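Re: your question from the hallway

Yes, I did run it. Sequences:
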Amino acid sequence: MDFLNAIIVLFNFTVIPALAYGSQLALGAIFVTLIYAVLRFANFATGDMMSFGTMFAVILTYYFQSLGFGLGFLPTALLTIPFAILMMILYMLIIDKFVFSYYRVKKSPPVQFAMVSVGVMFVTQALIRIIIGPSDRRFLDGEKFIIKATEFKEMTGLAEGITLKSTQAITIIVTLIVVSIMFWFLNRTKTGTSMRAYSDNEDLALLSGIDPKRVVLITWVIAGILATIGGVLYGLDKSYRPFVYFNNMLPIFAAAIVGGIGNPFGAFLGGYVIAFAEIFVTYAYKRFISYLLPEHLEPDSLLQLLSTDYKFAVSFSILVIVLLIRPSGIFKGKVI
Amino acid sequence: MRNYKNVIAAYSIMIFLIILVGIFQSWSIALTILNYCLISAVMTIGANIQWGYAGLINFGIMGYTALGGLAVVLVSVEPVKKAWQVGGLNILACIWIIVAIIFVVKFILNRFDKSKLRNYSVASVILGGIILLRVTAAPGIEAIESVDPAKTGFLGGMGLPVLFSWIVGALLAGSLAFVIGKIALGLRADYLAIATLLIAEIIVSIIKHEEWLARGVKNVIGLKRPAPYEINLQTSEWFINLVAKFNSSKLNLINSISDKQEALNQMVIDASSVYVKLCFTGLFLTVVIILLIVTQKALYSPWGRKMRAIRDNEEAASAMGKNIVKEHLLIFILGSAIVGLAGAMMVTNDGLFTPGSYRPMRYTFVIWVMVIVGGTGNNFGAILGGFVVWFLWVEAAPIALFLINLFTSHLPETNAVRVHLIESAPYFRFLVIGIGLLLIMRYRPQGIIPEKIIKQ
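Structure:
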């Protein structure tokens, strides 16, 4: 019985949150990796682009709520995602047309692209703050929990309970659906294959009649979908705050590089690697251990490897270690 | 001489703009902006050495700035004796443990061939070391942080003069750069950018959360100053006389003695703040000029030509027998040390150390915009970039507010759009900087004052 309790404690406080957080990171990391593979630069505007898409979802959620639309027990935000995606793609295409395409035609070095994306980051951040403001917003409605700890305890008769928030379940399910569709698209359809060919060898792809404009367009469309969904899911789970989204760019980068930049499947797994590492290293194991050990051996300290303040630092250290030992990432990067 | 015309013109415009601020807003604000411009100029000199001379992307400027700031606290604050008594031993023991870990890891790496066993043993040494560190440090940290937590709760510094900390800041940042350079310099350009950015985040989060070191997010206030304090100035005879002399024509217009005294008092208060800021300006200007001379000399020395050769074609330079790894590391250390110096200067100027304020937006990306806008590879350009961008960063909000008021003046005061725009005026600075950067990148990629190669 104690053993079961220990497992449930671990599951409730580490595995479930890590799965949800990892899914959000994974979507962002695939976004980074796609841009890197096809357009060949590190996009420093990642976090703010995700924030930009989420902003529309937030505004539309408020609008729909005022109209009285809703999805019942599901959050209204899910209904707004398609519209937000459309706006996001539109914004990305405008940015691409006026900013990135010039450097792509000139074949500028990736460093210049990165600096340009810093400029885009500034502009996006300004637009977000001017449109919606920098404050913290919650836009979750509908049912909050799927399983509550008390209900779980009553059901099973255990001392520890499992809490499953609806946002966590939605995050994991939506991520799985989106990612499987995306992999199917990249690997099984003709357009996906042409994207992979373009990423692999641009000149050869051009020779075999692949239209680069179309590839770029589709990349931005997929990027827009990933960025908006990732952003909205994160906002639903925690809350929407532009500054936090900018900061999230860093673990997302870490996930993309750890997984092998340019490799979408690597980025997908990288998100979970980073999330699990962050949570496992900063979790206090006292309660878990106290179930396993006999009473007189119970530990005094929290049994925490690092305090939760260092959550981000953990993922960055992993990144540094990966860069040192295996710069191409866990799964060999640079092809989609 | 013709070559220098645009440099002189650009700097004159910049100084004119600052004087305009002095006339329209106040001299105190103008001097504050000028001081920050000078500090930014030091940072851009550092970043320009790395990017302009050698083509290294360092997005970790924030980390070195924070470390320079930390140096001010560690050097100038009086030591907290009680904290040393209760927890000093533990902290010293920790330092020895860290040194021991480094030596053991080095020993293993040198002694054994590359193998899985070696990796695992290195990992287990580090992990065991961290656990040992935590066990040793925990009681000490707890004791230190409980020593008068509202005021101290940290070890304090060495109680030395604050100017000394500028050198220490540079040294600290330089030695950190040595470690980071060893780890990350082999990476490709964009990886290097990301890696340095993330490492800087780690450093800032350590400074933020290790409260025994420098109070963390609780901030250290009331740091020493290399300049006199306003209060002391306001009561000293010579300063009041000086102010009276300066404003004698204005004072003579006032007839009644009591009014005259009151006006003089107000003038003394204003003048004292300006005087203190002028002292800082003098100090900072000296630093900028010294750095400018040194970097200019370096740029046109054989060493500078070698750096440019490495930047423009690594393979060719390597084939000519230049040690690229060593030169890159050297320039990485030099540039970072200058950034550390700037960080120390900034904390000295503010008189307080606020680790929570170190954010990549302000301390990495804005500095990079300065370098790009000003002109990479040209020190005059980099300094000008520091001035222009900092000026825009500060003055964008008032200018935006003015323009918003101008364009919405036909709308009623309570109009929702107008109210919303006025509320969001501070964020126009991001817009101005971003659009400025994009325009410069597109139409003048070499910056306002481009790099000049003097054929020798």
